[in-house]
Amino acid sequence: CKLLLAMFHYVLLANYFWLFIEGLNLHTLIIVAVFSEKNRIKWYIGLGWLSPLIFVIPWVVVRALLEDTL
Fold first, then answer.
1. Residue ranges in 1-70 assigned as alpha helix (H)
2. Which of 32, 36, 37, 53 is the most exposed place for a label (fewest CB within 10 A)?
3. In the predicted model, is pLDDT for residue 13 greater than 70?
């Protein structure tokens, strides 16, 4: 149950980060890509999947240590 709750929060946060990444990608395509030939899609994929872990892992640790009831 705790693992399911942690996964739920990770997926929810990843959803918001992907919305941010899509906006960042559109910004890059419209504004920055005109002046640059670099492909940044790998950075966006990493940012979209790994950034939520920055928030979810400490949340899981705090929940496991401080709110471990039942």
1. 2-27, 41-66
2. 37
3. yes
Torsion of CA 28, 30, 34, 36, to 10 degrees: 0
The band of 15, judged by pLDDT with boundaries at 50, 70 and 90, is very high
pTM of the model: 0.51
Residue with tokens 């999947």: 49
**pLDDT for res 57:** 92
What kind and span of H or E run contains 37? none
Give the position of tokens 């929940």.
Answer: 63
CB 28 within 8 A of CB 41: no
Domain ranges of the chain: 1-68
How many C-beta neighbours within 10 Å does residue 70 have?
4
